[in-house]
Amino acid sequence: MLSRLDLKGSPYLFIAPFFLLFGVFGLFPLLYTVWVSFHEWSLIGGNEGFIGLDNYVRLAGDAKFWMALYNTIGIFIVAVVPQLLLALALADVLNRRIKGQSMFRMVLILPYITSIAALAIVFSQLFGSEYGIINQALGYLGIDAVNWRGDKYFSWVAIAVMIDWRWTGYNALIYLAAMQAVPKDVYEAAALDGASRIRQFFQITIPMLRPTIIFTVIISTIGQMQLFTEPAIFDTGGAMQGGTQGQFQTVMMLVFQEAFRYGNYGYGSAIAWVLFLLVVVLGLINVALTSRIRGA
Fold first, then answer.
1. Taking Cα atoms as reference points, which of 201, 205, 197 lies closest to residue 179?
2. How many other CB atoms are found less than 10 A from the CB of residue 38?
3. What is the pTM assigned to this prediction?
4. Rounded to 5 degrees, what are φ and ψ at 30?
5. Residue of 187, 246, 221, 228 lying closest to 64 (CA atoms)
6. Is the dihedral of CA 152, 238, 108, 173 positive or negative?
7. Comparing 42 with 216, which gets the higher pLDDT?
8. How confident is the model at residue 86 (pLDDT cuts 50, 70, 90)?
9. pLDDT at 180
10. Around 95, how many Cα atoms within 13 Å sit in the side-chain half-sphere?
11. How far apart are CA 49 and CA 58, in angstroms?
12. Based on the number of CB atoms within 10 Å of its own CB, is 137 exposed (0-12), middle (13-18) or buried (19 or more)?
C-alpha cells in the first residue's frame, strides 16, 4: 500500500511546490485585484467602501485610458510586424552554411540579456531631441531634427526600435530552431527542380514554419499588450505619463501611474482587469485564426 501511494502520490508532491508558490504569489494577488477593483481603495486610507462597477464606468468614459490603449496598439503594430519579418530573414541567413555561425547566434541573444539600465542610457543618447546621435546624423544629411519624445508617432518609432533591438534576435533563434528541423532532402529536391533560394524560402520554409510563426505572433501579442519597460525608460520624467501629453503612455504605464503614483488602487485594478480581458480576447482571435490557417 505504501509503495502504491509512493508511485501515485510522489509526482504530485514533486510538482506541489510550484503550485503552492504560484497560488500564493500569482493566483491570489490576481484574484484579489478583482475585489479591489470593486472598491474605493487608496494607499493611505485602504478600503474606503464598496462602489460596485463605478471604477469600470469611470474607465469607459476616461479619455486617458482610450489614448493609452490607442498608443499600446499603435506601438504594437509598428514594432511587432517588422520585428517578426526581420527575425525570419535573420534566421534564414543563419540557417545557411556561413562562417562564424556560432558567433552570430550568440550576438543575436546578447540584446535580450542586456541590462535595462544600459538600454536606457544607450537609447537616451541615440534619441535625444537636442544632442541625440540620430538627430546629429540627420543634420549632416540636411534633415531637420526630430522631437522623438514630443511627437506621438516618432515616439512610437523610437520605442519600436528599442523593442525590436531587444526581441528580434530572440525570435530569430526560435525560427532558426524550427528551420533546422525541416528535412534537408526537401531543399535538395527543390534545388534539383530549379527552385531558387527565394522560392524555397516562400514555398518551403514559410509553410513548414507556420506553427512556429503563429506561436511567435501569439506570444508577441500578449507581451506587447502588456508593454511597460521600453516606454517607461523612454519617459525621462519618471512619472509614467508617457510624454507631456501622454503621447506614448501605454495601458500598463497608466495602471502603474494610477495605482502607485496617485494611490488609486481600485481604479488601477479595474484598468488591469480590462487589459487582461483584452489580452484574452486577442488570444482567442489568434486561436481562431490559427485553426483556420491550419485547416487551409
1. 205
2. 17
3. 0.84
4. -65, -50
5. 246
6. negative
7. 216
8. very high
9. 86
10. 24
11. 16
12. exposed
